[in-house]
Every structure is written in C-alpha cells, then in structure tokens.
Specification:
This protein is α/β, with parallel strands linked by helices and 174 residues long. It is built from 7 helices and 8 strands; from the N terminus they run E-H-E-E-E-H-E-H-H-E-E-H-H-E-H. The protein folds into 2 domains: 127 residues, Rossmann fold (3-Layer(aba) Sandwich), CATH 3.40.50.360; 38 residues, no CATH class. The strands form 2 sheets. Strands 1, 2, 3, 4, 5 and 6 form a 6-stranded mixed β-sheet that branches. It has a two-stranded antiparallel sheet with strand order 7-8. The two termini are 15 Å apart. The chain binds flavin mononucleotide (FMN). The site of flavin mononucleotide has 22 residues, from helix 1, strand 3, strand 5 and strand 7.
C-alpha cells in the first residue's frame, strides 16, 4: 500500500500529489489527517509540501514522524527547477542524514502572489513597495517582484515521472 500525504496552501502541491496518487494507485490524504501509528499500514509513504520563504512547510514534523521510515519527499516551489535554486531549498531544509534516509524530489510549482490572502498579503505588499524603490535589485528580488506582475505556473503532469519511476523501481529492490 502506498499513501501520498500533502500540505498545499495554493493547490499546486495538491495537484501533483493527486497525479502521483493516480499514477501509483495510491491513497491520497492531507498530512494533517495522518497519524504516526498508521505508518506500519503502508509500504511506501510519499510526503509533498510547498516552499514558503525558503521553508518547506511541515517538513520538520514529517521528518520527526518518519525518522524510522525511509520516505519519498517532494517540495513544490516557485522556480521551474533551476539547479541552483533547488540546491538552496535542499540545503536549507535537510540535514545530510535526513537525505541519506529519505529520497528527495523537487517539483516546479509557480509563483503568483495575487493568490495570497490575509495577513500574508499585507506583509507581501510592504515588501513589494520597499523593493520597488530599491535601486540595485538582486536576481532574487527581481523574481519576487515578478511574482506580482507576471505570475508563473510550471505545473505539469510530466514532472511527476521521476517520482513514479522511482517508486516503481523500489518494488524490485527488496
Ligand atoms: C508567500 C510565498 C512565499 C514563497 N516563497 C518561496 C520560496 O522561498 N522559494 C520558492 O521556491 N518558492 C516560494 N514560493 C512559491 C511557492 O512555493 C509555490 O507557489 C508553490 O507552488 C506553492 O505550493 P502550493 O500551491 O501547494 O501551496 C512562495 C510563495 C508564496 C505565496
């Protein structure tokens, strides 16, 4: 039995999680509805989450929960899969030990700040307005501003293939 657990604020991670679950004939469930005691019911656990301000949401909780269960973890972020950006996300969120235990994948989501609501929207607009006035913007700052003007969306079912292939190949490894 395979289960795909997800945390998704704006829907991209959920979209990938459901494609993966369909392709692997797996159960699909929000991570918040999963209990540690259920781990033994599954051969394979896949956990997917979004990246916000550099952090993979809920990852530390997931790493604690799966500290004895090698799992497949994927992040869905704003970039299209740029190696340097993916490395930053990996280094920022994982220790080398957790990378030895789990298999990590990155899936390209997209960036659309117009979807953000509530208090986060308020903070984003402060950040945006001060950056607009800044003369020498870094590449990251330019990309941030672009998230308002030119929303990007790289979500594509094709991107799940490496995860699907990996899970299928695991079956023959034991
Ligand atoms: C407030 C905010 C902060 C974000 N910060 C990052 C970031 O630091 N790095 C990144 O790669 N993507 C970042 N993103 C992009 C999201 O990771 C991307 O939109 C992802 O697809 C969200 O997944 P979800 O739709 O499942 O919530 C950010 C998005 C928002 C709204």
């Amino acid at each position: 039995m395979i289960i795909v657990l997800y945390l998704s604020k704006y829907g991209n991670t959920l979209q990938y999680a459901s494609w993966i679950a369909d392709a692997l004939n797996a159960e699909l469930r929000p991570f918040t509805k999963f209990r540690k005691s259920e781990i033994s019911n599954y051969d394979t656990i896949i956990f997917g989450t979004g990246v916000y301000i550099g952090k993979m949401n809920g990852l530390s909780k997931a790493l604690k929960m799966f500290s004895k269960k090698p799992s497949i973890i994927f992040a869905c972020g704003g970039n299209s899969g740029v190696e340097e950006e993916v490395k930053k996300i990996t280094d920022h969120n994982f220790t080398s030990n957790s990378l030895l235990l789990h298999k990590f994948f990155y899936l390209p989501g997209g960036l659309d700040f117009n979807k953000v609501k509530g208090i986060m929207k308020f903070f984003l607009s402060i950040g945006k307005n001060s950056l607009l006035k800044k003369p020498d913007k870094t590449q990251e700052e330019i990309e941030f501003l672009n998230g308002f003007i030119n929303p990007t969306n790289y979500v594509d079912e094709l991107h799940i293939q490496p995860i699907v292939d990996y899970v299928r190949s695991m079956k023959y490894r034991h």
